[in-house]
Design goal:
It is a single chain. With about 475 residues, the protein is an alpha/beta fold. It is built from 19 helices and 18 strands. The protein has a five-stranded parallel beta sheet with strand order 2-1-3-6-7, with helices on both faces.
Amino acid sequence: MSRKLLIVDDEESLLEFLCLLFREEGFDVTTAQSAQEARELAAGDFDLVLCDIMMPDGNGLDILREIKATRPSTSVVMMTAYTSSKSAIEAMKLGAYDYISKPFDVDELKILVEKALEKTDLVEENVYLRRELEQRYTFSNIIGRSPKMQAIFKVVERVARTHSTVLIHGESGTGKELIARALHYSSPRVENRFLSINCGALPESLLESELFGHERGSFTGAVRDKKGLFQEASGGTLFLDEIGEMPMPMQVKLLRALQEKTVRRVGGNREESVNVRIIAATNRDLLTRVAANEFREDLFYRINVIPIELPPLRSRRDDIPLLVSHFLGKYSQEMGVEDAQISVEAMRALEAYDWPGNVRELENTIERTLALSQGETIGVRDLPPKLVSTQSSSRDSIDLPSEGLDLEAYLEEIRSHLMRQALERTDGNQTQAAELLKMTFRSFRYYAKKAGITASGERDPDGNS
């Protein structure tokens, strides 16, 4: 597709020459011979504008302003007959990519145009990638229809509009960073950076340098000044992953930075103000670590302003089919597999498994299984052995003991176990738990009372408590 170029100059012979030159280079060229004509064209979808600064009926700087106001990503190269002109310098301040002096070398102009277009492409690519990120990390793209996840979405959506510090707790693989990014990309800080660091992956000295920066010569290898993540993320969000693994001495320094909203670089003596939102995450019980003197209590309360607890996948099994469908779509597209599906039996095996690695483990399983499966439909035979054994142990591998068994007691035990699972999955809602087990509310309540299972009090459809 031809690149669109607008050339603005009142000198007719130069305009014709440039028009011919760039059309031979493959450009779709539009010309304007006056400032008025250029203003009428300025809002057009041009990749690049070549504009003379001095025009008989106006100033090229005004045209530059209008172009940058309507299409900031469009590169503009100004042309001037005066090399040291103050107007050329002003043009650079207003956002012109560069300027070239008349008379100019044709090859020099071609190189300048090429570089200007590279900048246009880079700016537009950055805008595209930012939009992709924003769309990817919106709440609508986080999968979960279970009551627990819906409750979390409501909290997160409200919290996103604030600048409050958030502490996300959950097992590994539950999506803590996904929630953190959704908070950022739905917040007023979206135009600024989201940066993250794993607090348990670096030694204390390096972690301090990464967070707060360092001065040149402050330690071996510090050959230049370096900003820390607090400064790099200023105006945006800093995600402190696995904060429970942070060494105690660093916790003191982090607490001070959060309280004072200032940082001091390693080897420096100057306090620098920072404006950054902190989102922390951990898979540890921080209160237990506080009690064991492994985590500072004052830091815990400083970061635990708004706590968000992410449930493990085994406690929201309703979401497994949705997640499987999402990952099948994602990886079938990457692998060029059309219409990838999963059998009913394979889905049951996925739902029965406890997923100690949570959503991350499920995603890896779907990717690996799809890559190794023989056909477009994933069957039980395609799943990892640990999933198949889980399914068979719950149904096909039940053997009658040689001494016999009390069938009624055995069935009662199975029923009680499944009822407790249903209640856990529905947050204690007996009506929803009964629906999961295809039971009437009264039957569920009867067997729950018989087995000593407690749950939230509800009234049945006839109004009885």
